[in-house]
Specification:
This protein is mainly α. It is built from 13 helices and no strands.
């Protein structure tokens, strides 16, 4: 049982939760401070954490299950748990059902609107895994799906959305889409030769990297604009400057003629960015506001 659990956690890349979870917390913090002039309770943070774990685990499980045949043919992904036979499809399906159950339980203990909107989130989680079969905009769909993290955190606390969280949603969505494009450059030849839709397959590696850079320029602008729309102060601004520098460094690492450092740019830089921005945000809201 423990061996299977270890394989499942490896399959869903549990450590990559660090991309989205800090932004869910950030959305919750901003919603509580901007609209309700308070800090989130530990109970709210706990249910948001469970909801994020359930949603992301279900999404990754679905992706691996739906893409099993594609992964089997791709040399880079052929050793993943399902195509390699380390897990059965029924076992992954059971894990997906349990993950969705956790999302349902968590949503039921947060703002009522989270339960009403949960079907939309589930639909997007399922949709993404099919998009690479018919559109090169699959990266944008992924961004719009994971970008629900801060929006969900905000709604879980406040029950209503306003301009700052919509800005954060779009900003995070383009950040996710931008680095997913970089990640997809690793499969450029396979995708192009096998009819898998992606921005690298459609526009080439050089074109894809420029599109990614364009997305991340808008991301940087969005993080800066958020400073002007909220009660955030110099601490958040300092974190934003560091985060933008990490974005630039990520694109310095990845060149059209040298993709060897894509894994470093994908996990190292992006995982660091989300954590850094969250730490500076919570310092700003929890310490400087003197709750």
């Amino acid at each position: 049982m423990f061996r299977k659990l270890r394989i499942i956690l490896e399959m869903i890349k549990f450590e990559h939760t660090i991309f989205a979870l800090p932004f869910a917390y950030m959305g919750a913090l901003l919603g509580a401070v901007v609209l309700e002039k308070r800090m989130p309770t530990w109970s709210e943070i706990g249910w948001i954490t469970l909801a994020m774990f359930g949603a992301r685990s279900a999404a990754m499980g679905l992706n691996r299950l739906i893409d099993k045949a594609i992964d089997l043919k791709n040399p880079r992904t052929a050793q993943r748990a399902l195509p390699a036979g380390l897990l059965k499809s029924a076992e992954v399906l059971a894990f997906i059902i349990i993950s969705f159950a956790l999302l349902f339980i968590a949503s039921a203990n947060l703002s009522p609107i989270t339960m009403k909107l949960m079907p939309i989130a589930v639909f997007m989680l399922v949709l993404y895994s099919y998009t690479k079969r018919f559109t090169w905009l699959c990266h944008v769909v992924l961004g719009l799906t994971i970008g629900l993290s801060p929006l969900g955190g905000w709604l879980a606390i406040t029950g209503t959305a306003s301009l700052p969280v919509w800005l954060l949603y779009v900003t995070v969505a383009l950040w996710i889409a931008g680095f997913d494009i970089i990640y997809a450059t690793q499969d450029y030849e396979y995708d192009r030769d096998n009819g898998v839709h992606s921005i690298p397959a459609r526009f080439g590696i050089a074109g894809a990297i420029w599109i990614s850079r364009s997305f991340h320029v808008v991301t940087a602008a969005g993080f800066l604009l958020l400073f002007w729309l909220t009660d955030l102060s110099w601490a958040y601004l300092a974190g934003t400057v560091i985060s933008v520098a990490l974005l630039f460094y990520q694109h310095w690492l990845v060149r059209p003629n040298d993709l060897s450092r894509v894994p470093t740019a994908f996990f190292g830089m992006n995982g660091t960015l989300s954590v850094v921005l969250f730490i500076f945000t919570i310092f700003d809201l929890a310490v400087l506001h003197q709750w």
